[in-house]
């Protein structure tokens, strides 16, 4: 693999999808980032991004590099840059998380971290609401929007994508306007606990005939009937489903890691948080890449 600093720059631009957005976190100016990316592409002999006034979008080669680079990042974080004398993580750590992350991302991520730290006990608290850190319901929480109040530290983990999906054997809709005759699968409107989960406006829909407060239940509903917005990283777990109308509708949301401000002094929790974020980035990238591979059967009407 290339020099790690170059890969770090590549990952930041890939996640931010623009030089100006990636620059503050890397403490570099956009022009310098552009030159770094150009040199990396020259050494690899391939374009990693499609550049446009709208930003930097990954090419196929770039998507493949992102998957491998995110895995390397996760491995480094898991090692914690610890010296040979430093012991592994131990004790109990509880993570609060929304349904999608708790079901499709965290099980394999936490298993990998725990496998490297046999004395560590990881608990995943999956709730259809925001976890209350002030009441110590969990040591840290994953959210879909950054909290605006409280003595907390907030770090962005990664962006993720959502698409319309339905059964592969169902006729593909011709447009968003044609969704009216399909039962829509989604959240129970009055139980949406975060504005980022309210997708009805994006669909122009007025109601949800098949609804649940659980993403996992929604996925099971879609296996039987209807059409709905699904996390791209969840689709590899439901091979019966296929994305549709991707040119008309593709949503981007983000996961955030929220911790008690006082816990910044805990080396143990900080090491775990770094490993968790890096591993989540790698897993989201891997599953979304798998979704794109399977997406040869996608239909756009």
From TrEMBL:
Q: Which GO terms describe its biological process?
A: DNA-templated transcription
Q: Which portions of this protein are annotated as coiled-coil regions?
A: none
Q: Does the keyword rRNA processing apply?
A: no
Q: Name one Pfam family in it.
A: LysR_substrate
Q: Does the keyword Cell membrane apply?
A: no
Keywords from the named record: DNA-binding, Transcription, Transcription regulation
Q: Provide a Gene Ontology MF annotation, just one.
A: sequence-specific DNA binding
Q: Which residues form the HTH lysR-type domain?
A: 1-59
Query: Can you tell me which family this protein belongs to?
Result: Belongs to the LysR transcriptional regulatory family.
Q: What is this protein called?
A: Transcriptional regulator, LysR family
């Amino acid at each position: 693999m290339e020099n790690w600093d170059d890969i770090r720059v590549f990952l930041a631009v890939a996640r931010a999808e623009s030089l100006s957005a990636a620059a503050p976190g890397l403490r570099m100016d956009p022009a310098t980032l552009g030159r770094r990316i150009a040199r990396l592409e020259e050494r690899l002999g391939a374009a990693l991004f499609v550049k446009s006034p709208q930003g930097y979008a990954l090419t196929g080669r770039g998507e493949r590099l992102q998957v491998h680079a995110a895995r390397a990042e996760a491995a480094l974080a898991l090692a914690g840059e610890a010296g040979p004398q430093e012991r592994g993580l131990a004790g109990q750590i509880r993570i609060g998380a929304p349904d999608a992350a708790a079901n499709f991302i965290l099980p394999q991520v936490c298993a990998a971290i725990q496998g490297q730290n046999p004395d560590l006990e990881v608990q995943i608290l999956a709730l259809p609401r925001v976890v209350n850190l002030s009441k110590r319901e969990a040591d840290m929480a994953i959210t879909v929007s950054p909290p605006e109040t409280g003595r907390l530290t907030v770090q962005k983990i990664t962006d993720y994508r959502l698409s319309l999906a339905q059964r592969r054997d169902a006729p593909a809709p011709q447009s968003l306007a044609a969704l009216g005759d399909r039962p829509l699968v989604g959240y129970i409107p009055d139980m949406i606990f975060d504005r980022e989960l309210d997708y009805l406006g994006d669909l122009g829909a007025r109601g949800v005939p098949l609804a649940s407060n659980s993403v996992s239940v929604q996925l099971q509903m879609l296996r039987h009937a209807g059409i709905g917005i699904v996390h791209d990283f969840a689709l590899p777990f439901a091979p019966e489903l296929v994305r549709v109308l991707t040119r008309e509708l593709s949503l981007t949301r983000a996961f955030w890691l929220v911790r008690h401000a006082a816990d910044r002094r805990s080396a143990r929790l900080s090491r775990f948080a770094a490993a968790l974020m890096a591993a989540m980035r790698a897993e989201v990238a891997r599953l979304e890449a798998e979704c794109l591979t399977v997406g040869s059967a996608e239909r756009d009407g």
